[in-house]
Specification:
The protein is 27% helix and 24% strand. It has 139 residues and is α+β, with helices and mostly antiparallel strands. The chain has one domain. It has a three-stranded antiparallel beta sheet, with no helix packed on it. A two-stranded antiparallel sheet has the order 1-2. Helix 1 packs antiparallel against helix 3. The longest helix is centred in the N-terminal third of the chain and has 15 residues. This is Phage associated protein.
């Protein structure tokens, strides 16, 4: 059923901007969409890393595995909200990635792997991709 839904979404006619022709800078729209839909339908967690240029322009939306990411909730059980301090917006940490018991930040270069037509962002796919000599790194 998941594959059917992904096929249906991939066949839809989309008004694609130049950026979304290859949202992660590598994969075409339909492959990138299938990866995201797999994570939404299986994990309920479509997670992307927003890669910016030094000037702050959005360069790519890199898919990452959403399974080990947990929200950091405040005492009220909600995600923290940004605030203004000295005229600047301060964005508090709202999510944390836990890998093998260690909390990691996203800026440390996260390897991303994809496997087969199903396109997943999980560790199994990463191992399969590495064996095939395929790997991507976020910088």
């Amino acid at each position: 059923m998941i594959e059917t839904r992904k096929d249906q979404a991939a066949r839809m006619k989309w008004a694609i901007t130049a950026f979304f022709a290859k949202p992660d800078g590598v994969l075409p729209w339909t492959d990138w969409l299938r990866i995201g839909l797999e994570d939404v339908l299986v994990l309920d967690a479509w997670t992307t890393f927003k890669q910016h240029s030094r000037a702050g322009d959005l360069l790519a939306l890199k898919p990452i595995d959403g399974a080990p990411i947990k929200p950091i909730l405040g005492e009220d059980g909600r995600l923290p909200t940004p605030w203004v301090q000295g005229g600047e917006i301060v964005w508090p940490e709202a999510n944390q990635q836990i890998l093998k018991g260690l909390g990691l930040s996203f800026g440390a270069g996260i390897a991303v792997g994809f496997s087969g037509a199903q396109g997943r962002t999980d560790a199994t796919a990463l191992r399969a991709a590495n064996k095939a000599g395929v790997s991507l790194a976020l910088t």
